């Protein structure tokens, strides 16, 4: 699979935080991102049991519907003491109003029920790039750390205010967005995508 510089790429996500981060990652590579929202693309049901399966469902649906290459991100927070939950259900833990304070409180409550105040955790990101033909490639990245309560910081999105990466003191929501982009699960998956050579100078 090859995408020459100047190609248009649909960012197959309706999550504003993710779209912002993916556009920042794509910026230096001469690829023109188009958001799925601006094309009115529907959000397919995420029926997969893994991040990779869900990323592929979203990328293939957007590529087929738009006729352009599409990049989808499926990601989430896996908490060790909760046997990897919320995992692929991370977005759903924020409830129907998509309020991540609800999701962060639920994690805190479930840890307290186990007599814990924190846990090791990791963010996982699967990025899938798909062509209208259905051809698809997926790349995964992880960021390891621990949880902290109460939530701290206003940057980022989702569960960033309770996640402190290994070797850091500040949460992902307290550090500068550029610093998160240099070390996040999404950045690591994106680095693998870049190393695959999909983005080329020319055809
Ligand atoms: P998805 O749209 O089903 O992949 O949902 C991913 C969910 O995982 C998001 O809505 C967030 O709750 C969480 N998540 C994924 N990546 C991040 C991140 O970089 N920071 C904080 N939360 C994240």
Radius of gyration: 17 Å
Q: Which sequence of SSEs, written as H and E, runs from N to C?
A: EEHEHEHEEEHHE
Which ligands does the model contain, each kind named once? inosinic acid
SS element count, helices: 5
CATH domain topology: Maf protein
Instruction: Calculate the terminal CA-CA distance, rounded to whole Å.
Output: 10 Å
**Low-confidence parts, pLDDT < 50 over ≥5 residues?**
none
Number of strands: 8
User: Helix content range of the residues, please?
Assistant: 25-40%
Shape: globular
CATH class term: Alpha Beta
Query: Hey, roughly how much beta strand do the residues contain?
Result: 15-25%
Q: How does the major sheet shape up? A: 6 strands, mixed
Average pLDDT score: 93
Class from helix and strand fractions: alpha/beta
Q: What is the CATH architecture descriptor?
A: Alpha-Beta Complex
Count of spatially separate domains: 1
Strand order of the largest sheet: 3-2-4-5-6-7
Q: Could you explain how this protein is built, in words?
A:
With 203 residues, the chain is α/β, with parallel strands linked by helices. It has a single domain, classed as Maf protein. Helix content is 29%, strand content 24%. The strands form two sheets. Strands 3-2-4-5-6-7 form a six-stranded mixed β-sheet. A two-stranded parallel ribbon has the order 1-8. Strand 2, helix 1 and strand 3 form a beta-alpha-beta unit. Helix 4 crosses helix 5. The termini are close together. Bound molecules: inosinic acid. Inosinic acid (IMP) binds next to strand 4.
């Amino acid at each position: 699979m090859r995408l020459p510089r100047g190609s248009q790429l649909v960012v197959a996500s309706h999550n504003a935080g993710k779209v912002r981060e993916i556009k920042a990652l794509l910026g230096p590579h001469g690829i023109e991102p188009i958001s799925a929202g601006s094309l009115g693309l529907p959000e397919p049901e995420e029926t997969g049991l893994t991040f990779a399966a869900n990323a592929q469902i979203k990328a293939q649906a957007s590529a087929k519907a738009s006729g352009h290459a599409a990049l989808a991100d499926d990601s989430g927070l896996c908490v060790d003491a909760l046997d990897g939950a919320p995992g692929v259900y991370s977005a759903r833990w924020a409830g129907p109003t998509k309020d991540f304070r609800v999701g962060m409180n639920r994690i805190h409550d479930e840890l307290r029920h186990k007599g814990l105040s924190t846990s090791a955790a990791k963010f996982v990101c699967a990025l899938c790039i798909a062509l209208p033909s259905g051809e698809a490639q997926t790349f995964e990245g992880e960021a390891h750390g621990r949880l902290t309560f109460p939530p701290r910081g206003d940057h980022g999105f989702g569960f960033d205010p309770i996640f402190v990466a290994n070797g850091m003191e500040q949460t992902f929501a307290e550090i500068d967005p550029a610093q998160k982009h240099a070390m996040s699960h999404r950045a690591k998956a994106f680095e693998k995508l870049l190393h695959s050579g999909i983005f080329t100078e020319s055809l």
